[in-house]
Structures are given as structure tokens and as C-alpha cells.
Amino acid sequence: MRRTVTRAVLAVAALLALALGAAVVAVRASLPALDGQERAAGIGAAVRIERDAAGVVTVSGSGRDDLAFGLGYVHGQDRYFQMDLLRRAAAGELSALLGPATLPVDRALRVHRFRAVAQQTLEHWTPGQRTLVAAYAAGVNAGLGSLRARPFEYLLLRVAPQPWRPEDMVLVALAMFIDLQQADAHTLIQRGLVREALPEPAARFVLAAASDWEATLDGSVSEPPLAPAAADYDLHSLGGLDFEPPARHARTRPAVGSNNWAVAGSRTASGGAIVANDMHLALRVPNVWYRARLMRAAPGDAAIDVTGVTLPGTPLVIAGSNGHIAWGFTNSYGMYEDVITVVPEPAGGNAAPGAAAGPAAAGPAAAGPAAAATGGAAAAGAGRYLGATGPQPFSRTTERIEVNGAAPESLEVIGTEWGPVIAHDAAGRPLALQWTAHDPRAVNLELLGMERARSVEEALALGPRLGMPAQNLVVGDAAGHIGWTLTGLIPARRGGIAAVPRLSTDPAAGFDGWLAPAQRPRIVDPAAGQIYTANARVIGGEALAPIGDGGYDRGARAGQIGRVLAAAGEHQTPLSSLAVHRDDRALFLERWHGLLAGLLDADAVAAQPRRAELRDALARWSGHAAIDDPAYRLVREFRAEVERRTFYALIAPARARNPGFAFRVPKSFEGPLWTLVTQQPAHLVPPGQPDWRAFLLASADAMLAALVTDCPRLIECTWGRANTTHIQHPLSKAVPRLGPLLDMQSEPLPGDEDMPRVQGVAVGASERFAVSPGREAEGYFDMPGGQSGHPLSPFYRAGHAAWAHVEPAPFLPGPAAHVLTLAP
Q1: What distance in Å separates the CA atoms of residue 237 and residue 685, rounded to the nearest whole number?
Q2: pLDDT at residue 427, rounded to an integer
Q3: Which residues contact 519 (CB under 8 A, 6 or more apart)?
Q4: Using one digit for the tens of pLDDT, what is the confidence trace for 561-602?
Q5: How far apart are CA 202 and CA 444, in angstroms?
Q6: N or C: which end of the chain has fewer CB within 10 A?
Q7: Residue 315, preceding bond cis, omega within 30 degrees?
Q8: Phi and psi for 177 in degrees, rounded to 5?
Q9: Which of 807, 804, 736, 667 is nearest to 283 (CA)?
Q10: Which structural domains are found in the chain, ordered by start?
Q11: What integer pLDDT is reported at residue 517 of this predicted model?
């Protein structure tokens, strides 16, 4: 019997080994060929593809269309699944690949009908641009087709990859709009709800900027937050409201942001400008970017030698250097969308054009959170709404959502003259969204011009024409000039940017075309010899008025960058930028450390062992977001607890009117918050505590209670314990056992959101470089993860350790380790 069982076990083990071996063989078959020669229909001349020891690609060819084909080829070989997810996410088509679990995402995003927008976008392009993107798509499909087996993700999902189409490039670009702007217009809606529910002095205070942290390039400063008087707003006179904040999240709030800067030649060792960039995005495997150098030997301006990051799915170098200029981007956080409260036509249909409907004429009704594509017409009576010139019909489009492994769904999208209905207010009225991303002119190939730009002036002239989410473009040239401007479409508005969503009956509702290039702000060669942006407000005054505030960063990070650059003095080199990239000093939390330490006097810690332990831990304050520092984490958590308790108490009336809306604390709230904890007005202490001292101590106790499971001993409650990276492949989230194979190694890292070294659990620098144009060999580049999306590739993790520890790797690709030639 024992022999029989043993034989059976051995037989099963053998079968499992064979199955595992077969799986490994199948997965290995999807590794790309790196050397040799392949025939490729669709190119005019041979294309040479080199890969260095880390898999960084150099594509050489005689025509730009051929370079697009070659870049598409390596994208298709190394990153097809990533590209597929991006196009499907933008189009609301993930469920066709991943099944019912992604239906909520598809329903929310299908409302924008980006597949149709992408098709319309191509119609606005020149024949030459359409030819180039078609060459890129052909290269992608050729690269995918060169694999001996489909990419391993499709083997696991048991589906076949669908071919790449030219319109898919537009969808990938629109996916970046979704990532960098607000498809749900949350900021604008939330501001409207706060302004409607709170007295004007209180709303103005809650929504004020953190003026003491602003670090604008023009020196402008916002008005300091002014707390409302007790006669205007007294929390203790508001009865029957819930002043408690929502439940805490288990994980710390992810750090978000992007940095770029330029140093003028007057302050560099070479006399050429230095440009640095680290765009912070959600970190995943593979990384969002793909490193490449594109080289075209041709006479004069037709020659191309550009190195930087490409976005798989597009034929463009997004940020980098071309030997004459270097450039980089950060998200600009202007107001690039409008929400219109759609007034339904009354049952009798006799409302006069432009007439206000009901009590919400002076502001928005309380908006609910649901992104409701369906049911809009029901809220509009007979299916019409009131516009400025009279009744208008809603449009209706039925979208079919395919679902892998289940029946398809039908989704009715309700549209208006401004855009789709994305939600409904508490009165049932539709809320329509007008967004730059909906316009077919929002995406184009004008970024190709950066490959040949020779000066800061040429690059800044291109800025307004670049079809991308509106970004802070920072550029420097080999002659030492530096400059800044905004890219992308920026709406013009008849009545300026509204403080609250406008009614559909308002003639000023919605966009009135786009700002002309001459109306764009720009800065060239400032006297300080440096430019920096970090998602905070860059300018003020009249120049800011048409841009607006879409949720700026509070400015602590930008100011810290500016001070480090100023302290670096003259004779800087690209390696000088490491001082910024490595800067994890906790300047933003210094005053909060002082506040908390000052609270913990003898009376506060008497008979309170946990508070005494907190006081002792605070003595270990290093002044950095260091992985072995418990004080940094504890101060951070204390500030977050005070912030959430204060903010949600102040907006209690808005929360009561809109119980389903997910209010979020804006980054700018640091200004009002610090005003409260320092001035301590008695009428604004959150109810439940007799005074501000008691409130702050109660907040510290709540923070300690929340950490008791993770940190029984506060001395062990280090920042590294909370800030341990978790950079995953999409499939490992669904199948955790795949994590060791697919995910990057988890490790505690220093840095946080309010300092130049931005680092979170799964958010951080998606790339990091510093370069002087014309001297690229002196520059450096780091990137999380590797070039390849294949876990068995030697390039899957190559370079990740250097990124994690900010160890500069060469900006240019190294010597060719592999050469693949595509022949026509």
C-alpha cells in the first residue's frame, strides 16, 4: 500500500513537473529576439535596434516613419500588455480582457466615449502625421508578431491580444489625461458644495491657500487665510451634525507630485543649461516609461539624435534631450474642466430662456457622488433641459461593454451641449462635464517638434501646440538659456472661471474656445538663473486668472527645491542635481514636530504612559523622512489626524447635505489648519473638546490608538515600516502567488510627499534624470523597474536598485550588447 501511494505521489509530481516545465517553455517562448535580422514589411530602409546591458534601446534609421516603426517594434516586443491596458482603460474596455471585476471602472470611463474621440482626433491630423502613427502601429504589430508565443499575461488570461490600431495611440494619451486631470471634476464639485453649505467667510477660509508655503517664480503670494469670526461661523451653534471624520485608511496617504527644474548657463560649469525632471506617478510593473534613443542621420535640421523616455503606445520621446535642448514636465493643476448643473425643462415647458430654476440659481445644488451615465433623461422630464437660448435635447448613445467570461452590458450615455452627464445632484439634476480631453484637438503629434528644436525660444513656441494634458514645460538649451510655459489646450471662458458650477441657463456656462498662444504665461531667463516647478502655483495675478486652481500642491516641495538650487551656487553640473533628488529633509513638518513636542509637558504625560513614550520617541527627530526615524512617522500621523478631524468638522454642514459625496482634504488646507492650531479660535475648535489643547491631545491619543497594532512600542514605529515599497504587476494583485515572480522587491525607502524626494508605498519618481543638452554623457537617469515587461528577461529588474537608492546611472545608453536589424 505504501509503495502504491509513493508511486502515485511520484506520478503526480512528475505530471506537475511536466506541466510546470511546459508552462516555463511557453512563457519563455514569448521572450523577444534580441539579435539577428528580421524582415519587416512597411519600412523604407533598414532599421537598427541596439540594446545595451540594461536593455536600453537605440533605434537608428534613415526616415522618421522608420524610426516610429522601430520604436513600435520594441514596444510591441517588450510592453504590449501594458499598452493594451492603457488603451482599454481610456476607452472603458478593460472588462473585455479582465472580466467582470473591472466593470465599475469601465462604466465610469465609458461615459467619456474616448474611443469615438480618438477616431475623430485622427481626422484633425495632417496626412504625414497619420502616416507616421500608422507606421508606429505597424511596428507594434510586427514586434508582437515576432514573438514565438503571445505575451505571458495573455497565456494566463487565456485570451489572444488584439492588434494595435492608429487610434490606440490617442487612447494611450487620453489615459494620461485621466491620470493627471479629473475625469470626475471632484475638486470643482467639492468646492461648490462647500460654498453652498457654509457661510461665505467660512467657505473662503476652508478653501484658502497655504500662503506661507507658496514658492512662485514671480514672487506672488496669496492672501493669508482669515478665520471667520464667531458671528459668521460658530461650530458650537450647529446642532445635530456629525463632526467626526470618516474612518481612517489602513495605509498612509500616497505621496504624489512631480518635480522639474532648470539652471541657467550663468550658474553651470559648462555654460550650458541643466534640466532635471522626476515625474511622480503610480508605480507599477512594468514602469510607465520606456527608455530610448532615436537616431536619424540626415543633413541639417532633418537629423535627429534624441534620448529620453517614451510612452509605450506612442511614437514620441516625452521628456529628454536632443543635443540642443533638454526638457521635462510636471502636472500643472490648472482648471481644465467645467461642471454645469443642468436645469431640466419644467413639465409645462414654459420657462423663459436664461431663467433661474429654483433656489439653486445662486450656486450648485448638493451633488451626489455617483457617476451616473444612465437615468439623466429621467431627471429631465421629457428629455430636454434648459440652455441659455431655450430648451435643448439630451443626446443618448448606447455603449456596449464586452465582458470576458460574462454577458456584455449596455450603458446609456446621456449628453449635453457641453459634454456627458457624469453625476446627479441631490435634487436629481444632471451634472454635465466639459473637459479639454473631450475635444479631438487635445491630442496631437506636435511633440515631434521637440526632437528638432534648437533653442529655448523654439521650444517655448511649441509649448501651446503640444497635444497633451496641460503641463509645466521647463526647458534649457546648450547656450545656457532656460524657460517655462504651459502646454496643451487651456480653456477660455466668457465669464472667467466660476467659483461654483454654473447653471445650464447661464450664458457664461462652459468654454469659449481656447487661450491663444500669446495669452499663455511664460518665463525666460529669470535673474535668479533658475526655474523650478513642483505642482504648486507658479505664477499669480492676471497671468493666473485664465489658468485657475485645479488643486495645486501647497508649495513646500517647490520651495525646498528652489532653496537647494540657490545654495548650490555657480559651477553646477548635472550631478549637482543629486542634492535635490536625494533631499528628504522634513522642513514641512518641523513646526508640527515643535507643536506636538510642546504639548507633551508634565501635565500632559502624567499617568499617560503612551504619551510619555511618544515624548521620548519625538526626541529622536532626525529632521528627515528617514526609514529608521520613529519621530518623523509619529509627527506625520499626528498632523494627519489633526487635519482630518479639523477639516471634516469645518465642513460638517456640507457633509450633512451630501451624505454620499466623498469629500477629500485638499493639499491647500495646510494654510487654514496652521492658522487654527496657532490662533486657536474657541468657536472653531471641533465639538467634543473644551479647547484646542484638549483637542490636540485627543488627536495625539487617537493617532497612538490607531498605531497600537502596528507599533506596540513606539520606538519601533519607524517611517520605513510604513513607507515600504509595494510595486506590483497588475496580475499579481489578482493572483498574489505570482508576486515573487512579477513584483519588484519591497524595501523601506526614505522620502515623502512634501520634500523633493517624493516617495510612497506605490507612488514616486517614475523616472529621474538630469542632463545638460550637448553634454548628455555627463547626465544621469534612473527608473523603477526595467525595460522589459517579461519576468524572465534579464532586463525586467535592471536598474531598479539604482533608482531605489538614487544612484545615478548613465543618461545615454551604453555600448550595444544586442543588435537586431529590421530589413525591408
Answers
A1: 12
A2: 84
A3: 492, 546
A4: 999 999 999 999 999 999 999 999 999 999 999 999 999 999
A5: 43
A6: N
A7: no
A8: -60, -45
A9: 804
A10: 2-181 (1.10.439.10), 186-220+228-253+584-722 (no CATH)
A11: 94
* CA angle in degrees (0–180, nearest 5) for 795-257-529: 100
Report phi then psi at 227, rounded to 5: -65, 140
**pLDDT bucket at 249, cuts 50 / 70 / 90:** low
3-state SS class at 54: coil
Instruction: Give residue 31's identity as a one-letter amino acid code.
Output: L
Cα separation, 131 vs 421, in Å, equals 35
- For residue 377, what pLDDT band results from cuts at 50, 70 and 90? very low
Question: What's the CA gap between 150 and 190, in Å, rounded?
Answer: 45
As a three-state string, the secondary structure of 482-507 is: EEEEECCCCEEECCCCCCCCEECCCC
Return all residues near 90 (Cβ < 8 A) that are at least 6 apart: 109, 114, 118, 171, 172, 174, 175, 178
Q: What is the mean pLDDT of residues 386-399?
A: 96
The pLDDT score that the predictor gives to residue 732 is 92
Please give the pLDDT value at position 819: 98
CA dihedral angle for residue 699, residue 700, residue 701, residue 702, rounded to 10 degrees: 50
pLDDT in tens, 51-81: 999 999 999 999 999 999 999 999 999 999 9
Distance (Å, whole) CA 675 – CA 367:
29
Instruction: Report the distance separating Cα 189 and Cα 499, nearest Å.
Output: 10
Closest to 361 in 3D by CA, of 384, 386, 379, 337: 386
CA dihedral 439, 189, 661, 110 (to 10 degrees): -10
| pLDDT tier at 27, thresholds 50, 70, 90 | confident
Reply yes or no on whether the pLDDT at 355 is more than 80: no
Per-residue pLDDT of 114-126, as tens digits, reads 999 999 999 999 9
C-alpha cell at 21: 516545465
In this structure, what C-alpha cell is assigned to residue 440? 479631438
C-alpha cell at 694: 484638549
pLDDT at 8: 36
Let me know: does 803 contact 765? Beta carbons within 8 Å.
yes
Confidence of residue 383 (pLDDT cuts 50, 70, 90): confident
| Element housing 656 (H / E) | helix 652-657
Give, in degrees to the nearest 5, the angle at Cα 54 between 52 and 60: 35
| CA dihedral sign, ordered 62, 65, 68, 73 | negative
What CA dihedral angle connects 582, 586, 587 and 592, to 10 degrees?
Answer: 170
Average pLDDT of the residues in 322-330:
98
In the DSSP assignment, the letter for residue 761 is S
Task: Retrieve residue 417's grid coordinates.
Answer: 451641449
How far is it, in rounded angstroms, from Cα 75 to Cα 88? 17
CA distance to 164, 265, 335, 379, 469, per residue, from 493 (Å): 37, 39, 11, 27, 18
Tell me which residue of 187, 147, 206, 77 sits closest to 672, measured CA to CA.
206
- The continuous run of DSSP H or E covering 260 comes out as strand 258-263
pLDDT for residue 204: 97
- How far, in Å, CA of 424 to CA of 364, rounded? 11
Q: What is the pLDDT of residues 647-658, one digit of tens each?
A: 999 999 999 999
Burial of 240 (0-12, 13-18, 19+ CB in 10 A): exposed
Distance CA 400, CA 409 (A): 6
Q: CA-to-CA distance for 606 and 651, rounded, in angstroms?
A: 34
In sequence order, what are the beta bridge partners of 58?
50, 293
What whole-number distance in Å separates Cα of residue 188 and Cα of residue 49? 47
Confidence of residue 46 (pLDDT cuts 50, 70, 90): very high
Q: Is the pTM of this model over 0.70?
A: yes
| Cα distance between residue 314 and residue 321, in whole Å | 18
pLDDT of residue 19: 38
Number of H helices, E strands in the chain: 25, 29
Confidence of residue 349 (pLDDT cuts 50, 70, 90): low
